[in-house]
Amino acid sequence: MKAGFDALNKRVDDLIKEQHKPRPMEQSTPAKLQTSDTEKTKPAIDKKEDMSQDKLQPGKRPASKRQTKPKKNPDFEYTTGTKRKRNDNTKQTEDDIPQVYVPGPNESTSNEYMIEPHQMATVEYIKTWPDNQVLVHIGLYTATKKNLDCLFNNSAYMNDGVMNAYIRILKAQPTIQHRDDGYAYLETTYDANKICLDTAASLKDKGERSFNLTRTLTYISHHMVFFPINIPYKHWYLAVLNGNKGVIQVLDSMGPTSNRPEQRKLLQGLQNRVKRLEHLNLIKKHEWQDTQIHKWKVLECTPDQMQFDSSSCGLFTLKFMELWTGNRLSTFFTQKDMNSFRLKLAVILVDYQWNKVKGSPGYKSTNVEETYTLEDIEKKK
After folding, report:
1. How far is the C-alpha of 323 from the C-alpha of 304, rounded, in Å?
2. What Cα–Cα distance (Å) separates residue 218 from each residue in 12, 211, 230, 238, 290?
3. Is 144 in contact with 133 (CB distance < 8 Å)?
4. What is the pLDDT of residues 305-319, one digit of tens each?
5. Cα gap 255→248, rounded to integer Å
6. Dihedrals φ, ψ of 159, to 5°?
7. Is 101 exposed, middle or buried (0-12, 13-18, 19+ CB in 10 A)?
8. Tens of pLDDT, residues 187-225
């Protein structure tokens, strides 16, 4: 029996040794592997076809076949890190809007801002007079030699005398009154400042012949009213009441801002005037969408800074008054243009054909009467 157990143990030991014995690796042969019947009937797939099928698989990006880095077209702007949704071709997109070339501040857009050689005689004529000498008298507005001195100094701030004299010239031009959004009325700095002082209490006793109310009736008979706004000794900018659109349009050479207390005072004073007119039942018709000015949206129409010095804001404001159509500036201008326009403005004011102060070298007498007399009539109380 013991011999039987010994034989069994020897057999088990042999089996264990057999399992732990290292097996020799099979040598690969060039012989083809046998395939199943299913694999035999499956057609061979070309490598190019296989890659095209990978492209169809959702969520899987195929390998790029690009051999070189693509060149960027310098005429286009490339952005990265964003994903744009394909727009409906029937709707206007930003790409459909033509891009307007905007010159830099040191570029000049036109020679019209430059002074002509023969006009230097007028410049020298102005400099010969004492400070208190009145050299400009247009309509009801005057400017002395001292007022004009700001036009000979690029760092000087524009004063009311110069601003109002040029605004008066603009008001007399019929082409200036016609804009894209209708008839425009250009207010002077003097009367724009008066509006800011009009409260409900101060207007309580004003009657239909009051200048404050008759001037406001003039405003509402125009589609657009232009108000030059002044932050004393600091800044000028323009506020346009666009009654055709029912919005307030702000043009500021320093760009947009949300803090405009002077503008709020002007709009509140104007709203007080309108309420007084409504109380007296004096508004028979008007050219505005409505008379609720305090509800009109305020739009900043100069999204970028145009002025790059600390003193030419008044010049920019005058050009805004001249060129704003209600939708855009009819002509673009730059800081360099305003630097040139400063000296040119002195010549324009003194040589103006309806300047009551005659005698400058560039003055040309005329027998034609100035057609614009509306403001002088309104001014009389």
Report:
1. 17
2. 122, 11, 22, 19, 15
3. yes
4. 999 999 999 999 999
5. 16
6. -105, 170
7. exposed
8. 999 999 999 999 999 999 888 888 999 999 999 999 999
